[in-house]
Amino acid sequence: MRVAIVGATGAVGHELLKVLEHSSLPIDELLLFASPRSAGSTLTFRDQALTVQVTPEGPIDADVVLASAGGSVSKALAPAWVAGGALVIDNSSAFRYDAGVPLVVPEVNGDAALAHQGIIANPNCTTAIAVVAVAPIHRAYGVRRMIVSTYQATSGAGAKGMDELLNETHKVLHGKEAGAEVFAHPIPFNVIPHIDAFQDNGYTKEEMKVVWETRKILGDDTLQISCTAVRIPTQRTHSEAITLDLERPATPAAVRELLAGSAGVEVRDAPEDKLYPMPLTASGKYDVEVGRIRESLVFDGGIDLFVAGDQLLKGAALNAVQIAEYLHAKGALKAKVRV
Question: Which residues form the Semialdehyde dehydrogenase NAD-binding domain (predicted)?
């Protein structure tokens, strides 16, 4: 099977390489593409140095294209990749809200991927992490209302965001004033309740992505969701405090047991032993950590919980590869015959 990564030199592109190293996909050849600025550089995959090529304007001769070069690139070029016979799994927001494009988290709605017409969208990182924990509860108890507060790492803004945190923190620690280029304000020792553009309703687009995408993934347009998204000065892993109003009352013990048996979840919930989800422990993990599971003091029979998931993995690269692996396991993704 021939796999291509578009945007191979970015933060998500590097994680895609790492995830593919251990993937169950039968990869015979890996093609790497990026902007002209990065072309000619080399990246290592399974002990082999691969040269990064300029992303072509036309088709890519691959069975799967994992795209992570931004929405404008995907919007312009993905149709040509599909026309050339490739399945496109796109990490940008370009196609997430198209009715004919599945928005997929394999543990939650993997079957939706089977209905693709050439393109499958990867959710926003915050949404992907949340629904891994919320979907099992929704299936068992029915979620009516969902309130989310996020604590999002600088990795959500890519490699430039991560670099800005390190560089500007270094300035502050050496008595200099921090600046801001990637973020709206200096990020060291600060939290910024502003991710993406503000919308007419007072919410940011990042916050509305959680609303729109959670409803689409769970297949429930009646679900009421409110989100406040905040950037925090950590390198990677997004954390979220989630409050759920349920149709059928649940107990913390029952939810804990339910999540312990759910794919993609690691329950870390022993506060008496100081065991709970944190970026420090969730970074680099495939599973989403879930803990602080407790009875809601606002909604009768509702549940509060806290989650932490690696934004670059389950929130991006890992989920994309898992979509391809799901299709391959179902016999719905096969290598083209080449002569």
Answer: 2-116
